[in-house]
């Protein structure tokens, strides 16, 4: 439902000069007044005077989490739920290669114990904001006879944002951290890769990026589809978390299946050219703040592929959480 509706919405929304990047990426990119009225990309940054002077742009993203869908307030700490509401937006900011600045927070609270719930949720919100140097600049509060919902709009700044559309044939594909098993608890306090994004900018040129929210394979496929390319994957190189191994003991799914499709990892998938890939593989986790693993290469044929015996390629299919789908 989500992807088809977004495609419809892109066709209905009016292009405005101030919007450099609109619907379809991890965040919107807006031109500040006085900047040129065209999109900025890593390959062609918007500039006020010359191509040697990248211009600063604003990044904005928003995400909503709802009790019973994205968390369970009856069994999970409200402070951790508040922390998650900020962290998942920070992950989108990281995927754009941006620096977060401010948050607007809207709480829709159940009428019963609304003040107590708001206070506990805000403990986590303020903790995350302090950790990542984000100001709570405003928002809204309302109560009703329904479940808790938290909506956060996060603002940031960027020069030459990383977009889903920038992957090129021959690029190396990397992923940060390890994947799978997040629902064992890590999804409530994910580590948004803001620091990794900052350090990558110091060492390499990132051509395309996306964060892992709905599943590694699904989000990778979305990024590559936006770039109109595909991937040849080294499946055995996909980094699998300890939590995925633990969950596989009771789930009837392999650790790899968990890493492939679980989602809510909030790691970064990104591509760089081959010369930058060689430089990146020389850097340690201390250099980058977290391990990054090369998991494949970008190819001209769309879709996800793995090499099997000899030189033959076999297609593999993305899996993950698709918004709007049910089990019914």
UniProtKB/TrEMBL annotation:
Protein's recorded name: Thiamine-monophosphate kinase
Binding site for Mg(2+) 3: 26, 92, 211
Binding site for Mg(2+) 4: 26, 92
All residue ranges annotated as the PurM-like N-terminal domain in the record: 54-158
InterPro entries, sorted: PurM-like_C_dom, PurM-like_C_sf, PurM-like_N, PurM-like_N_sf, ThiL-like
Keyword ATP-binding: yes
Positions that bind Mg(2+) 1: 62-63, 140
CDD domains in the cross-refs: ThiL
Additional remarks: Reaction mechanism of ThiL seems to utilize a direct, inline transfer of the gamma-phosphate of ATP to TMP rather than a phosphorylated enzyme intermediate.
EC number: 2.7.4.16
Every PurM-like C-terminal domain range: 194-302
Pathway: Cofactor biosynthesis; thiamine diphosphate biosynthesis; thiamine diphosphate from thiamine phosphate: step 1/1
Keyword Transcription listed: no
Functional note: Catalyzes the ATP-dependent phosphorylation of thiamine-monophosphate (TMP) to form thiamine-pyrophosphate (TPP), the active form of vitamin B1.
Catalytic activity: thiamine phosphate + ATP = thiamine diphosphate + ADP
Region annotation Disordered: where it falls in the sequence: 33-52
Binding site for substrate: 70, 264, 321
Gene3D superfamilies (UniProt xref): PurM-like C-terminal domain, PurM-like, N-terminal domain
Binding residues annotated for ATP, in chain numbering: 122, 139-140, 164, 213
């Amino acid at each position: 439902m989500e992807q088809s509706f977004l495609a419809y919405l892109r066709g209905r929304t009016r292009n405005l000069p101030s919007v450099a990047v609109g619907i379809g990426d991890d965040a919107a990119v807006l031109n500040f007044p006085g900047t040129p009225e065209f999109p900025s990309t890593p390959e062609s940054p918007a500039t006020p005077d010359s191509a040697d002077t990248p211009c600063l742009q604003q990044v904005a993203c928003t995400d909503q989490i709802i009790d019973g869908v994205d968390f369970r307030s009856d069994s999970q700490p409200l402070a951790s739920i508040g922390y998650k509401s900020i962290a998942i937006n920070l992950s989108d900011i990281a995927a754009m290669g941006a620096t977060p600045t401010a948050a607007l927070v809207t709480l829709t609270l159940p009428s019963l114990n609304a003040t107590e719930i708001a206070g506990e949720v805000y403990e986590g919100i303020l903790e995350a904001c302090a950790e990542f140097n984000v100001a709570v600049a405003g928002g809204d509060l309302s109560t009703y006879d329904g479940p808790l919902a938290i909506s956060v709009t996060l603002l940031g700044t960027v020069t030459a944002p990383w977009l889903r559309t920038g992957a090129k044939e021959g690029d190396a594909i990397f992923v940060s951290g390890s994947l799978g098993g997040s629902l064992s608890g890590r999804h409530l306090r994910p580590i948004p890769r803001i620091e990794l994004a900052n350090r990558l900018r110091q060492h390499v040129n990132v051509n395309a990026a996306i964060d892992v929210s709905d599943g590694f394979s699904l989000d990778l496929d979305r990024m590559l589809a936006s770039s109109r390319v595909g991937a040849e994957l080294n499946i055995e190189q996909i980094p699998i978390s300890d939590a995925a191994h633990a969950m596989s003991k009771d789930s009837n799914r392999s650790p790899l299946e968990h890493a492939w499709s679980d989602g809510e990892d909030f790691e970064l998938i990104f591509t760089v050219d081959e010369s930058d890939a060689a430089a990146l593989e020389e850097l340690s986790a201390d250099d980058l703040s977290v391990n990054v693993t090369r998991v494949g290469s970008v190819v001209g044929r769309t879709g996800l592929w793995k090499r099997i015996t000899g030189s033959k390629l076999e297609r593999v299919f993305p899996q993950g959480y698709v918004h709007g789908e049910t089990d019914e």
